[in-house]
Sequence to fold (189 residues):
Amino acid sequence: MILPVTQYGDPVLRKKGARIESVTSEIHQLIADMFDTMREARGVGLAAQQVGQTLQLTVIDVRGVKERPSQLWISGQPADADSFMPLVLINPVVTPVGDRISGPEGCLSFPEMYADIERAGEVEVTALNERGEPFSFRAGGLLARAVQHEVDHLNGILFIDRMDAETFRGLKTELEALQAATRAAKAGR
Ligand code: ZN
Fold:
């Protein structure tokens, strides 16, 4: 089922997600709905807060973006990122590694807004999968960027918080308009 994507100005986007202690049938349904929602919106990642849930849960699929490659290592060995997709991360812990790299980002909660954001070029990740089993991997390229963007969401952090001051100032009017529209829509519901 496709869910409404929460937009900037909705306070749920600023809430830290609760840890998931057991992967119930409700969580499985939420994961399926998040994939439907992400694919409909043509996103590469979606966090629980973006569908109104304050949980440590995100889904990622970078296969659609051929022009921005991803790298993957499992147990130190290079692996095929595409066949690792789609990815469900529950209670993820991310350790940044490697040099910081600037690259373009957008966010489904900020329609039509894009900016270059500096992030670690690679990350070590441990999480639970959709069966509640622990797993870990190292990611680079677009996958590393997507993981950092989505895990930020789980902690109430948005990509506008990571922009340089000049970029943020450039988007200020648009951001204020989006925030006002979101609040008005919520008030009218
Ligand atoms: Zn986002």
The longest helix spans residues 165-187. Residues 11-187 form a domain with the Peptide Deformylase fold (CATH 3.90.45.10). The chain has one domain: 11-187.
